[in-house]
Write a structure and sequence with these properties.
Low-confidence stretches: none
Helix content: under 10%
Radius of gyration: 22 Å
Distance between the termini: 42 Å
Strand order of the largest sheet: 2-1-3
Largest sheet: 3 strands, antiparallel
Strand content: 15-25%
Shape: elongated
Number of helices: 0
Order of helices and strands: EEEEE
């Protein structure tokens, strides 16, 4: 089941819930019992490392057949 992010209208607090897709936009009960209203928000995420690709050593760029950058072997500046 997917994880959905919900934001409180009153104070801006954010909660995450694991729910079936069919219930993604269903009303959310306030977990603190304060009667706050939560609505689903577009959540974002990041994958990979926090290091930029320019800080990686040249040996991390491997060519086999076609390069991962889409250029054929020998035509990439990372050779």
């Amino acid at each position: 089941m997917p994880i959905y992010e919900y934001t409180c209208h009153e104070d801006g607090s954010v909660i995450e819930l694991i729910r079936p897709m069919a219930q993604a936009d269903a009303p959310v009960e306030d977990p603190s019992g304060k009667g706050r209203t939560f609505t689903r928000t577009h959540s974002t995420f990041q994958t990979g490392s926090s290091a930029s690709s320019s800080s990686l050593p040249q040996s991390s760029h491997i060519h086999s057949g076609s390069c991962g950058c889409g250029k054929p072997r020998g035509s990439c500046s990372n050779n």
